Amino acid sequence: MLTDIVLDAMGSDKGPDPEIRGAIAACRQFPVRVHLVGPENMIRPLLEEHLRGERLPIHVVHASEWISMDDKAAASVRSKKDSSMRVGLKLVREGKARGFVTAGNTGAAMATAKMVLGTLDGVDRPALATILPTQTGSPCVMLDVGANVDSDPQNLVQFALMGQIYAQNVLGIPKPRVGLLSIGEEDSKGNALTRETLPLLRALEGEQIYHFIGNVEGRDLFNGRCDVVVCDGFVGNVAIKTTEGVAKLVSEILKQTLKATITSQVGALLSRKAFKNFKRRLDYSEYGGAPLLGVRGACIIGHGSSNEIAILNAIRVASQFAQADVARHIEASLSRIK
Amino acid sequence: MLTDIVLDAMGSDKGPDPEIRGAIAACRQFPVRVHLVGPENMIRPLLEEHLRGERLPIHVVHASEWISMDDKAAASVRSKKDSSMRVGLKLVREGKARGFVTAGNTGAAMATAKMVLGTLDGVDRPALATILPTQTGSPCVMLDVGANVDSDPQNLVQFALMGQIYAQNVLGIPKPRVGLLSIGEEDSKGNALTRETLPLLRALEGEQIYHFIGNVEGRDLFNGRCDVVVCDGFVGNVAIKTTEGVAKLVSEILKQTLKATITSQVGALLSRKAFKNFKRRLDYSEYGGAPLLGVRGACIIGHGSSNEIAILNAIRVASQFAQADVARHIEASLSRIK
């Protein structure tokens, strides 16, 4: 049995090329059927060219428009009624596919998914999660990093449960350690939101949350101390963009300093293999992009710079997400805390 | 004329050794008189040993106690009445010195400074600023990174003015570009706090804030786009600890990957000079620690891991802070927006 996954062919910065290559690679490796959505006249010739006569379960689904990175999310969702995102998500809503992958405009993808798929029972706000690499090698799920600003304690409790279910079912961590992002470990540390949320999460410990470790700090996102970190979407978005900024600064300085002397140019040459390994370990794309949790369906939003490998991984993760029935687990879990 | 600076001799993790060395180095390089505060029987012998008969303007001021990193801030400020921080800050309050430097417990230093020095007229909450390195090499002042949680728009406006004055008078940037930390550049992006603060800051543009660039994002902390970034203390603290976490992860992975192959061991050896340069450029201690803005006096809080160079730089910055009369400028600026 193949799992049907919809892929927005026009999402990434270099789309549809990485999408077509990623779809082909995914179909060769995993039991998936990929529905490539976008302008048929652009996609079909490229697909045929890459397939070179190979027969793979890839279907082209026509959509006349697409949403670009520069489009305003809210406006484009309303105006582009035949966008590849919208057409693709409709296939999931109609049960013709079980998961959706895009490397496109994050805001537009979230808004379209909420509108087309709808939210699960018991979910007040779907949350965007990101999967961070850590020192110990185990991934850390952080949510919300979308734009759920001014969340209330109930929102954070829902995020915690959704994050736990994702970590269990997709990342394979049986009892994920769940932390609340704050500014100190003691229970008294934090702002009004976290101080109100902490006792609610403690009350769920053991029953609904298997392993709640209390307040955690920014540095705990990367040291392997926890598997799921919960925060308001404003704070999460600042943290994730700060992470991008630091990573860019570090690699920029590294490049400059290595260029500065001949000795270190030689050094850099010899270390090339090590650097490649280094970059791979820091690369988010290995984890397949950001899952949108709380909508009716499996939805993965990749980075605009996604390449073939990133698309391949996103398809794999969407398939696991759908297979494990994460959405049903979320509904069941949230119904128990009502 | 020498500028009198008080140095908490017992602040850093390895105190009083780095403090004594740093004080000696500072007195050799800058026109400062350093008041070293701590248990006299611990400090004097070490100081004599390091001075080897050299005559420098360093005074030892006795304090029988000190606050350690493990002490709870609020409790230790109350109970340790003869702590080196408290005795040292009293010298500033009494006009016997113009600036205070500690590499000790940040929470305790902030609480003691607020209590002993008091806040400036017009300042509702003093703010802790941090100086970040950027890709362009110019520093970026971010505040608050202390613990002013649940700030209101007026607090953020005061932070903006204080940060601007620090950037002008201590970092020597005539018209600092001031940004408001948010989750998107458009004015509509942000949470309730930033959306309320943005128009207040825009209204001060030109008159009180020379160059307001609107909303900025986490990545703009490190790309040199702005000189001053304003945020609530919860968000700032998360951002700064996330930065520490990413930096640690990156250097850990780099170390591991370089160790993994012999070729790269050789490479690493050859690149050593470059790495040293790299580390120095990322090192915060060059900027001398975190200034506490809004109290009556110049107060610099360094990292617990401060070495001699970090202490030297902190003394230099405290002296500039005092010389430039940052506190008086802050009062004057805030009185104009009443």
From TrEMBL, chains A, B:
GO molecular function, one term: phosphate:acyl-[acyl carrier protein] acyltransferase activity
Function of the protein: Catalyzes the reversible formation of acyl-phosphate (acyl-PO(4)) from acyl-[acyl-carrier-protein] (acyl-ACP). This enzyme utilizes acyl-ACP as fatty acyl donor, but not acyl-CoA.
EC code(s) of this entry: 2.3.1.274
GO CC field: cytoplasm
UniProt keyword terms in alphabetical order: Acyltransferase, Cytoplasm, Lipid biosynthesis, Lipid metabolism, Phospholipid biosynthesis, Phospholipid metabolism, Transferase
Quaternary structure annotation from Swiss-Prot or TrEMBL: Homodimer. Probably interacts with PlsY.
Gene: plsX
Catalytically driven reaction(s): a fatty acyl-[ACP] + phosphate = an acyl phosphate + holo-[ACP]
UniProt entry tagged with the keyword GTP-binding: no
Family matches, as InterPro entries: FA_synthesis, Phospholipid_synth_PlsX-like
The organism of origin for this protein: Terriglobus roseus (strain DSM 18391 / NRRL B-41598 / KBS 63)
Family: Belongs to the PlsX family.
Pathway(s) where this gene product acts: Lipid metabolism; phospholipid metabolism
Pfam family of the protein (one): FA_synthesis
Record protein name field: Phosphate acyltransferase
BP term (GO), one: fatty acid biosynthetic process
Compartment(s) where it occurs, according to its Swiss-Prot or TrEMBL record: Cytoplasm
